[in-house]
Amino acid sequence: MATLSQSTIEKGSDMVQDFLCSTCEEVKLEESADYYCESCVKFYCRKCIHLHSQLFKKRSPHQRSDMKK
Predict the structure, then answer these.
(1) Which residues does the UniProt record annotate as the domain B box-type (predicted)?
(2) Of 11, 26, 29, 31, which cross-links 45 as Cys (Cβ 3.0–4.6 Å)?
């Protein structure tokens, strides 16, 4: 399950929570997520979304800007 990383509020930004990439988190890496796949119910960074898109061509993950929806 994806977890929240350090809040960007603490870094001086407005009320934004960063989500960690689910795949990277499994191997103990803390990479900020840029995409979310509703079918997988997982978050992905830019590197991992490339592999995800190759494996699951019919799924359309949401970009970070759409995550609030």
Answers:
(1) 16-67
(2) 31
Positive or negative, the Cα torsion across 10, 16, 21, 22?
positive
**Tens digits of residue pLDDT in 9-61:** 455 555 455 789 999 999 999 999 988 888 888 999 999 988 887 767 777 66
Q: Are strands 35-37 and 42-44 parallel, antiparallel or unpaired?
A: antiparallel
Q: Is the model's pTM score more than 0.85?
A: no
Query: Using CB atoms within 10 A of its CB, is residue 42 exposed (0-12), middle (13-18) or buried (19+)?
Result: buried
- Range of 51's domain? 1-69
